[in-house]
Every structure is written in C-alpha cells, then in structure tokens.
Amino acid sequence: MSGGPVDAATPPEVATAPRGRFDLIFEPAGQRVRVPPHVFLFDAASWNGVAIDSTCGGHGTCRKCKVRVIEGTAPVTALDTRAFTVEELKRGWRLACRVDVTSDLRVDVPPLATRPKAATVGVGRRVILRPAVQKRFVELTPPSLADQTTDLDRLTACLDDLEVRAELDVLRTLGPVLRRSDYRVTAVVVDDVLVAVEAGDTTQTTYAIAFDLGTTTVVATLLDLATGAPLAVRSMLNKQQPFGADVITRISAIMMDARTLSELTRLAHETLNELAQGVCEDAGVNPNNVYEIALAGNATMTHIALGLDPESLGVAPFIMTAALFPDVLASDLGVAVHQRARAVLFPALGAYVGGDIVSGLLASGMDRDSRLRLFLDIGTNCEVVLGNSDRLLATAAPAGPAFEGAAIRCGVRAAPGAIETVKITSDDVQLGVIGDEDPTGLCGSGLVDVVAELVQLKLIDPSGRFVTDEVAASLAPGVASRLTQWNDLRVFVLHWNGDVGDVTRSIFLSQRDVRELQFAKASIATGWRILLEEAGVAVNDIQQVLLGGSFGSYLSAASAVRLGLVPNLPLLRIVSAGNVAGEGAKMALLSLRERRGAMALLEEVEYVELSDRGDFNDRFVDELAFPA
Predict the structure, then answer these.
(1) What is the pLDDT of residues 392-404, one digit of tens each?
(2) Of 65, 75, 602, 70, which Cα lies nearest the Cα of 354?
(3) For a surface tag, which of 223, 412, 519, 560 has the fewest beta carbons within 10 Å of its beta carbon?
(4) Distance of alpha carbon 210 from alpha carbon 522, whole angstroms
C-alpha cells in the first residue's frame, strides 16, 4: 500500500468494521485495532498499547504526538497548522490527539523520543503515567525597568510546552509568591488550568485520592502521582447507613422528607473527607498537596454527593439528572484538600449501572479484549456486563441486601467475628471466621457457602426448602441434629453459643434466610441469562467470569456455581477481579488516556433495561430453584 493523499475518498485496504467501528492499522508494527467513531487517534493508540510520544497527555499543548496518516481521512486542524509546515501537512503529518477517527486509517508512528513511566494497578494492568496534574519547577528572571513583562506572562513563557490559563484566585497570590520566593517557584497545572504557584521546588509532593463511593462501604486510596504508587488505603461504612441499607430506601427517605437530601449529602461529604484526612495522615502527606480526586459511585450515590435530587432514579422511567457532570472541585464534595483540587466523576450508563461500573469496566479492560467475558459486581444492586471488544451489553439486577448480611436473621457485615466460609460434611461443620475470633454472625460469603453446602448434601431441596428431620438423619446423621425448629422458624445451627440444643443465642441459617438468597440469586441469574440471549451466545461461549466488588473478592466460585448464581463453567474460568471500581478510579488519576477510555465507554456499552420486559417475572420465578 503506497502513500497518497490522506484525504482521498477511497478507503484503505482493510476490512469494513461492523457496528459503526473503524479499523486502525499502526505501522511499522502493523497492529490492527477497532474503535468506535469519534475517538481521538491518540486515545485509541493508548488503549491498545501503542505508545505515541506526548508530555501533555493528549491535550494538544505539547505538540509531540506527531504521526503520519498514510491512508484514510484526517482533516487538518488549527493545531496541526501550528505544528507542521504546509509540505508536512500534505504528506499526512498530524497531531494524533487531534485526529478525530471517522474512517479506517493506516498510520505511521515514529519511535518514542523518551520512554514514559508506567505503574501497575491492582488488576495487573500497566498504566502509562500521564496524570492531569503536572508540576514544573522554574527559575524566572526577575523583572526590571527594561523588562516589565507581567508576572503571568513571565511564568507561562517558561512553560513553553503547555498552554495554561489562570483563574482569578491564583492571580491574587501569584505576585506575592514570586517575590517572596525570589522567582524560584513551582507551577501546578491540572489539565490546562494553573491551580497554584508554590514557593521553591515542590515537584516531589504531588498526590491524588481515588474514592470508591459504595452504598455500604467507601474506600479511599492515596496515590503518589510521581511514581503511580499507592501510599495509603482506608475504608469505612458510608455514614448514610442510618437512612437505609440500599439506594431505594435512601431515595424513599428523600421522597418522604425533602430535608433528607441535604442531610444525606452532608453525610456523604463527611465520609469522603474523613477518609481523605485519614489516608493523608497515614502517609504523612499534607492534604494541601492533593490536587485531584476521582470518585466512582453508583448513580444514586453520585447524585446525592453532588446534592442532586435522586427521586427520579427510584421510579419509572428511572431518569438521571445527568450522565456526565460539569467541572467539579473536591471542595464541592466536602473533601478538604487543596482548595482548587479538581474532582473526576465517572459517568453513568443508566440509573442502575453507574460510574462505579464504568470505572470497573475501565479496570477490567473488557472493551479491549477479544474474549467473551461476563462481569458481575454483586451487591445490593448487581450490575452485569457481557461482551468483548466487539460488543458490550450491560444491565442491573436488584439483589437486595442479603449479600451484605442484612435481612439475614444472624447476618453481620464482613468484619472480625463474621463467618466467611463454611464446609459441611455428613458428620461435621467447619467454619472460617474473620480474624479467627469467636463467631458473631454470618456474612454474605458465608451465607452463600452454607446454602451451597446444604444443597449439595441435599439437606435443602432444589425448591429451597429444608428437608424433614427423618430425611436429614438418613442423609447426614452427624449434623442432622443441627436442623431443628426454633419458634416459628426452621433453622440449621452453625455454631452453638452456650448449651448444645439452645438455639436462642446460637448462630443459625433460617428458612427465611434461604429465601432471601434465592431471590437475590434468581434476580442476578435472570440478568445474565437475558444478556446471553440478547448477544446470541451460549453459556459455554463465556471464556471468563469476573467477580467484582468487595463481596466478589471473597465469594467461593464453587458455591456460586452450585447455587446457579453464576454460569456453570469450569472453576478456572471464574476469577475474582477485586475492587475494580477503585482500581478504575486510580487509573483515571494516573493516566489521561485511561480517563478518556472511561468516557468512551458511554458510546460503546448498550444498556438493557430489565424492568420493562414482560417476561422478566416469569424468568425470575424459573431461576428461584437451585440446580438439582
């Protein structure tokens, strides 16, 4: 294929990409990738591991991301005319960050002038370090009668690879800081905004905080943006808990009393700020050196944190105020770090597939993988995503609070004393307790385990009902005495607190608990089965199941398969993805490329609404039974 006019009408000699995607071929390696329309070429390369030189992270200010478009359509932009000569433009040279992909392209990528730093995040992905926050130490020539350049122009002239703008509150401090520091200062730039000018060289103190704002638990991770390393991690219960264990309950509380919104917003801010101060204290970092935060949360939690009324999220047709949000400061979320620190908020795909899932998809890289994968973030609301680099489908399945230990008679959160694993044979019960302490209750992973074990022993039949005492004695004589009646409940005792036979103070699984788990698993299984049908694929086509979220980290794959919670696949295909929402938030802070990748997911993921499907209830009922 010989070079020619890059604006030629004839397409390059590559296969037509389906579903509105375009093929990009990066030379000299010949790497072919497929992307949706209107993605910038620089981002497409970054997402697929093709390194293009840049120091500004794709903002169009450093003019180093030079590539030559060999074939395809790439109109000249205003920035291109400033970076290249007329002859170079005719030969196809463009700034990759300004090439809006609207056709198939073949592009020649020059070798890197410098090798970028990279960091490894918890999902095993390496992220090229190009944060939005940049610090530049400069030594300026003091003004004189012969040189009356303004303070701002004097500073920006030394930032020749950046085009920055300064806000009024920075200008108010600029002159005094310059003169006090003898014109030796550090400029702090976030995106294209000059957010601070600091005396001396402070380039080694650049930090950011990633938040996973969960309905139940909130996690904060402090990052060193110079190295990409996490410095401290803290988690705590969301202080909104008194207003309900799930988003629907909290929305209902707001609907009943409009004043509740401001109270819930205040509690969200308190939670975030307490965590921020905690991780800074743990790492010995001054909060004033935190210049950016990222927040991944479901749509309701994000709305409430911003003070937006979430009432319309709780009733059909489930409408969000916005999927994308305007520029937000950390202070708008109650986080007391640098006063002009920016906040990155992940967009939502739908009312119940929010920014936490977009963040999780970014971390998992499902949109860049040719394997068919199923992602399950199991919690009060279970988000389900199925697909690969060709197509992604997403939905939400209401699971209820059983996995958090709520609505379970002896249920507790996953804390010291909680039973997290259960093994039952016909003669014995073995419990795994968090912290190796005396058992205090049953958490979500323990709940799944005990029901799966009893189903395997046939002490719970496929309908979810405990068998009779006589049947239990014949099937598992050594543990049959644990299956008993207490008040109006049929229960299986896991741990006797006190005398054997005294159920009152013991830890047990009740018939009602089994029903709660059945409802949760039926909702989730219905969700992923519907997505399989929408995609036209079978269970055996799934090459990997990713269990996300804190609960997914501890869930036994064998137990989940046994109950029908996840597809019946070889256990090696079912893996814990960990806190992918938090990992995605970290990626967004470490790399502008990854941040743009998250935004692109809004166009790539197809949302499937379950609540308006006429067959959902029948399908749900069919999924209540446990596999025989």
Answers:
(1) 999 988 877 778 7
(2) 602
(3) 519
(4) 33
CA 444 – CA 135 distance, rounded (Å): 45
Helix (H, G, I), strand (E, B) or coil at 359: helix
- In angstroms, the CA 522 to CA 31 distance is 43
C-alpha pair distances (Å), 183 with each of 167, 187, 260: 20, 11, 50
> If 0-12 CB within 10 Å is exposed, 13-18 middle and 19+ buried, where does residue 326 land?
exposed
H or E element, residue 151 = helix 151-156
Quickly tell me which residue has 């949302």 as its tokens. 607
* 288 DSSP assignment: G
How many Cα atoms occupy the beta-carbon half-sphere of 23 within 13 Å?
14
Residue 209 near residue 290 (C-beta atoms within 8 A):
yes
| Sheet (strand 193-199) strand order | 133-139, 184-190, 193-199, 165-166
Residue 247 pLDDT class (50, 70, 90 cuts): confident
Pull the structure tokens for residue 532. 């399989």
Contact assessment for residue 382 and residue 503, using Cβ atoms and an 8 Å cutoff: no
Name which of 541, 521, 540, 532 is nearest 622 in CA terms: 521
Residue 138 CA to residue 63 CA, distance in Å, equals: 21
Amino acid (one-letter) located at 354: G
Work out the widest C-alpha separation in the chain, in whole angstroms.
Answer: 103
Is the distance from CB of 515 to CB of 401 less than 8 angstroms? no
Q: Which helix H or strand E contains 513, and what residues bound it?
A: helix 511-535
Other C-beta atoms closer than 10 Å to the C-beta of 614 total 6
Domains defined for the chain, CATH in brackets: 22-114 (3.10.20.30), 127-199 (3.10.20.880), 208-345 (3.30.420.480), 364-401+517-623 (3.30.420), 409-507 (no CATH)
Tokens standing for 306?
Answer: 């911003």
Parallel, antiparallel, or unpaired for β 184-190 and 193-199? antiparallel
| pLDDT for position 135 | 93
| Chain-centre distance for alpha carbon 373 | 17
Token digits of residue 115: 């090798």
Residue 355 CA, distance from chain mean position? 7
Which pTM value belongs to this model?
A: 0.79
Q: Does 301 score more than 90 pLDDT?
A: yes
Q: What angle is formed at CA 111 by the lines to CA 109 and CA 113, rounded to 5 degrees? A: 130
Could you give the CA distance from residue 437 to residue 512 in angstroms, rounded to a whole number? 27
Q: What is the dihedral of CA 48, 57, 61, 115, to 10 degrees?
A: -80
Residue 541: closest CA among 393, 373, 392, 385: 373
Per-residue model confidence as pLDDT tens digits over 531-587: 999 999 999 999 999 998 767 778 899 999 999 999 999 999 998 887 788 899 999
Distance of alpha carbon 8 from alpha carbon 11, whole angstroms: 8
Asked whether 422 and 564 are in contact (CB, 8 A), the reply is no
Tell me the torsion sign for CA atoms 540, 544, 548, 554. Answer: positive
- Rounded to a whole number of angstroms, the distance between the first and last alpha carbons of the chain is 60
Instruction: Kindly provide the b/e burial profile for residues 8-46, where b requires at least 16 CB atoms within 10 angstroms of the residue's own CB.
Output: eeeebebeebeeebbbbbbeeeeeebbbbeebbbbbbbb
